[in-house]
Amino acid sequence: MAIRVFHRDTPSLRLPLISKDARFIVWPGSGAWVANMNYVRLEPGEENVPHVHVESEDTIFILEGEGTIQDYTNDISLPFHAGCAVHVPVGVKHAVKADKGVGIVSVGGPSPADVPLLKKVGALPADARAPG
Known about the structure:
single chain; mainly beta; Jelly Rolls; 6-stranded antiparallel β-sheet; 3-stranded antiparallel β-sheet; 9 strands; 38% strand; globular; Cupin domain-containing protein; RmlC_Cupin_sf; Cupin_2; RmlC-like_jellyroll
C-alpha cells in the first residue's frame, strides 16, 4: 500500500451518531484499521449520542469552540476549549457537548478503529476484519 492523501470535504462516511456533520476521513472504510481521523463540527447546543468504544481509546483535538465532555461511566463532566485534547479510555461511556453557546470543530477518533461500533451502525459489513 502507498501513501494516500484525503480531504475533509470528501469523506467516505458521515456518521450522525457523532453529529450532523461528522466526517470519517481515515478509517477502515478508507483502508486504515489503527489510525483514525474524523473531522467533526457540532453546532451550538448539539451533542453526540452517548456511546462507548469497547476496544478503542478515543482522542479528540479541539480546533475551534468550547464545550463539555460528559463521562457517564464515572459521573463527571469536564470543560474544554480550542487547543485542548480530550482522551477517553477504552470502555468509558461519553458524549461531547457544544453546550457553551458556540459550535465546536474537532479532529481525532478512536484507535484502533472501533470496528464493533462501525458494524453496529452498518458502516462496515458484519464479517469485516483487519487485514493480516
